[in-house]
Amino acid sequence: MTATKPSHGALSRTGEDHSSTAKTVMVADDSRTVLRLIERTLRDAGYNVLLADDGRKAVDMALQMKPELIVLDINMPELDGYGVCHELLANPTWDGSTPVIFLTSADAPHLETLGNQLGAFLSKPTEPELLLQTVGALLARRPRSV
Q1: The domain that contains 30 carries what CATH number?
Q2: Whole-number Å distance between alpha carbons of 84 and 61
Q3: Mean pLDDT on 95-99
Q4: Considering the entire predicted model, what is its pTM?
Q5: Which of 6, 23, 39, 63 pairs as cysteine with 68 (C-beta 3.0–4.6 A)?
Q6: How many domains would you assign to the chain?
Q7: Has residue 69 been placed in a domain?
Q8: Coil, strand or helix at 70
Q9: 86-119 burial, b for 16+ CB within 10 Å, e for fewer?
Q10: Residue 110 DSSP code
């Protein structure tokens, strides 16, 4: 389990200091390169980042750490992205309003539909700015925790 936090006083790309109120985003992908690129993009924008390199670890980490948003690859070992969503949504302790961004090189019409239902669908490779815009928009729509 890997977690990174923005450095104290970290500024987002908009110049806002988010270090004390940073949202936590979990990224699950079996590609170490993709994990590191997304981690750097999100961390530099002021987010706390959790990393999982397979679907089983993603489920365990999500249930334990309760991220505000998940970036999820579809094709992963141990448990694919569909299985991750199924297990999380079937767990009574999971907040079903947590948005999921499906990030995959696969291209199928149902992925866009699924993304629209649970959060968003972005094709790999995706531009860092598009990822940040999508993360920000989904977090802004999410109901606040009480």
Answers
A1: 3.40.50.2300
A2: 11
A3: 93
A4: 0.81
A5: 23
A6: 1
A7: yes
A8: strand
A9: ebbeeeeeeeeebbbbbbbeeeeeebeebbeebb
A10: H
